[in-house]
Automatic annotation (TrEMBL):
Gene3D superfamilies hit by this protein: Collagenase (Catalytic Domain) (3.40.390.10), Neurolysin, domain 3 (1.10.1370.10)
GO molecular function, one term: metalloendopeptidase activity
Keyword Zinc: yes
Gene: CYOPa
Lineage: Eukaryota, Metazoa, Ecdysozoa, Arthropoda, Hexapoda
Protein name: Cytosolic oligopeptidase A
Pfam families the record matches: Peptidase_M3 (PF01432)
Entry's cofactor comment: Binds 1 zinc ion.
Cofactor list: Zn(2+)
Entry keyword Membrane: no
Alphabetical list of PANTHER family matching this protein: LD37516P, PROTEASE M3 THIMET OLIGOPEPTIDASE-RELATED
Entries under InterPro entries matching the protein: MetalloPept_cat_dom_sf (IPR024079), Neurolysin/TOP_dom2 (IPR024077), Pept_M3A_M3B (IPR045090), Pept_M3A_M3B_dom (IPR001567)
Length: 205
């Protein structure tokens, strides 16, 4: 859970899968992993409730855990998530996320925390429709960020010049000269997705 002064809740989609031990048949080692989240703490008599977005993060990270734990590889160097090509790094997580949008899945995992009443069909339908809302704009944005990531890691050109060249190709509106969004593109600079951001979109296919 998020804890004051210890584990601050910065993002509502924060979640991690940690590979603790890989499977290895030579040493009879069984795979071990952990899921770490940043959900809200229970409040008074109310349990910790998750938003639909947080459930999506849970499903995606659980997909990573399944890939690590159910591996059929015999050697630890290639078991689970080790040495997986970037093109396939997010496949299992995306498969689990697809299941989340199935109406039967939504109703099976949801309900009122005190009465147990399932979600009405109209709310389930709305949750399904969320995925298609502004889908074209979101796709263009992800294509742009994926291309931007690759360009920034393969050229010595100043970042603003790269942005000014790419931005009009993926957006219907003009680029604001004061826009410095690449400077906050933390996934490719401070996380492991440098020159690999495209795999999020690629894995969905």
């Amino acid at each position: 859970y998020a804890r004051q002064d210890q584990k601050i809740r910065v993002y509502d989609d924060a979640g991690w899968h940690i590979s603790i031990r890989n499977k290895c048949t030579i040493t009879s080692s069984k795979p071990l992993s952990a899921l770490i989240f940043n959900f809200q703490q229970p409040l008074d008599d109310q349990p910790s409730l998750l938003s639909f977005k947080e459930v999506g993060v849970l499903f995606q990270r659980f997909g990573h855990a399944l890939r690590h734990l159910l591996t059929k590889a015999n050697y630890s160097e290639v078991a689970g998530l080790s040495n997986v090509e970037w093109d396939a790094a997010e496949v299992c997580g995306q498969v689990m996320t697809h299941w989340l949008y199935d109406p039967h899945t939504i109703q099976a995992i949801s309900g009122h925390h005190s009465t147990g009443e399932t979600l009405p069909e109209d709310i389930v339908k709305n949750l399904q429709n969320i995925r298609g809302h502004m889908a074209g704009l979101n796709l263009c944005k992800e294509l742009y960020l994926s291309r931007l990531d690759l360009e920034l890691h393969s050229k010595k050109t100043f970042w603003r010049d790269i942005v000014q060249e790419l931005y009009p190709k993926y957006h219907a509106f003009s680029f604001d000269k004061y826009d410095s969004h690449p400077l906050s593109f933390t996934k490719i600079f401070s996380e492991e997705w440098g020159a690999a951001y495209y795999c999020h979109l690629w894995s969905k296919m």
